[in-house]
Amino acid sequence: MDALKKLNRRRFLKTLVMASSAAAIDWTGMSAFAATITNKKDFPIVVIGGGLGGLVSAAYLSKYGFDVTLIERHYIPGGYATSFDRQDFTFDVSWHATVAEHAMPQMILADLGIWDKVKVAYTPELKRIITPTFDVTLPAKNPQGVKKELSRVFPHEKKGIYDFYGEMEMVISELWEGKRFEISMMGKLENLSLEKWMSMHVHDPDVKYCMAIFSGYYGVLPTEINALFYAIATGEYLVHGGQYYKTRSQDLSDTLADCIEANSGRILYDTQVAKILIDKEDTITGVMDNDHVTYPARAVIANCSLPSLVNKILPPKKIPKAFSQQIKKRRASLSSFVVWLGLNKEVDHIENYEIDLAQSKNSSDDLLFSKNDLAESGLSMTIYDNLFKGYSSPGKSTLSIMCLSDFKPWKKFENDYFNGNKNAYNREKQRIAKRFIQRFEQALIPGLSDMIEVMEIGTPLTNMFYTQNPQGAIYGFDRNMPQIESKTPIKGLYLASAWSHGGGYTPVMMAGQQTAKLVLKSFKQRF
Question: CATH code for 140-241?
Fold first, then answer.
């Protein structure tokens, strides 16, 4: 009976990593491994890709005195954690919110000695949700307030609402405070889907829609997403509130890059890795870039997409068949469609930061995106100026409107897009963007179209162009797939990205930390 009550440790830890949770980590282990290697400069390390996972790995390894070279094809670091300028506006590529303080990001950045160099702003609410039949705002850092507000709108489901969010709080208490209950709530949820968990407490589809509203953050429907994963990831938002790195996500990436260079690590921008070099003993010896410049390496950390790694960078004859099949049988995650708007006036009649606008009450139809017409998908608007004063220039506002998207509607434009023939593609993205704006104009911001000073549109093809992620994936592989081990069967090759550890800022930062430790442990064992 005791065995039935215990969580499978391996599955449990993987769930925690996926859920962006700060489980107990041996922070002294990495330092201890590094201390055993005296001739550190004889152990060069190359990191392929400057996303957050690659940046964290390189920051740790350079901190401990190793010769680290990070190679990034873009001219700035960060991957999706970047920003771009258009006239008077600086737009964030992907950033809405995360849990940073009192969680794993703070622990990692503090361990690197750079937490004091980043600043965060707290989101003013958890979420505002507007549907054809109700409009509700869920308060931030206030679980009781969330229960109260949903119960006000849906009094007939009050008990189920309180029980559902009470169980979510219990999961956070078990995880963070070490509390123990007669029945482990983490154990109860481990084998349930979110849909089954919700159905144990409520029946109204509108209530379920609100409960499952963060499924879009993870790119998985309630019928498919694991209940424990959702409870941990969403519970941290519920209890601790969402945070945003000031002034943009680029600040986080730049801080990590500065840390690498301050510790004598090298970052090579505008440089693309062509292939990984492997000797006759099937051991990595270095990498070569597109200009045929070689970089010696005892270890290579791949922060690039795994399909690119297998299909383009690794020598085909050196790839173990089982590893290749493991990568090829997986499917890419969803992508995104984003409209960035720079307005010529302030949107001062709305206090909310993140607002979801739904067309349908059925979460299975509308929660991720519309398969019939992307323009009619459920949308999320972010009004960045409601986050902190001075986000935009005086008298102006910065907004984004986005939805998730699969690649199917964009596949027909792919060849023309990459050959510079974008007329049909441009018409389609403009059509969708115009409809997004029209819908928020009707529901929330009258006259929005006339306020637009700058507009940029990002599609799955845009994501492909800048990241080289197949199908413009934003989470790596589909998040329902098991994680891939950081240490590959190829000697000296390691993984640290959304493709191996799951998408999201916190999981990839954790991937960077864990992979750096694996590299040090391997050096200690091999040499």
Answer: 1.10.405
Percent of the chain with pLDDT over 70: 93
How do residues 409-454 score in pLDDT, each as one tens digit? 999 999 999 999 999 999 999 999 999 999 999 999 999 999 999 9
Domain boundaries, the chain: 2-82+248-330+479-526, 140-241, 334-472
381, 357 Cβ separation under 8 angstroms: yes
pTM of the model: 0.93
pLDDT at 216: 85
Q: Where do the H-state alpha helices sit in 241-362?
A: 249-262, 306-308, 321-328
- Going by pLDDT thresholds of 50, 70 and 90, the confidence category of residue 26 is low
Would the CATH topology of 2-82+248-330+479-526 be identical to that of 140-241?
no
Specify whether the CB–CB gap between 355 and 380 falls below 8 A. Answer: yes
Q: Is the Cα torsion angle 105, 110, 111, 112 positive or negative in sign?
A: positive
Write the class of the CATH domain 2-82+248-330+479-526: alpha beta
Three-state DSSP class for residue 356 = strand
Q: From CA 513, how far away is CA 496, in angstroms rounded?
A: 9
Q: What residue spans of 383-504 are helical by DSSP H?
A: 408-411, 414-418, 423-443, 448-451, 460-467, 498-501
CA 70 – CA 191 distance, rounded (Å) = 40
DSSP H or E segment with residue 84: strand 83-86
Give 124-137 pLDDT, tens digit per residue.
999 999 999 999 99
Question: Within a 10 A sphere around the Cβ of 370, how many other Cβ atoms?
Answer: 16
In sign, the C-alpha dihedral spanning 1, 173, 503, 115 is negative
CA distance from start to end of the chain: 45
Q: What are phi and psi of 128, to 5 degrees?
A: -105, 135
* Length of the chain counted residue by residue: 527
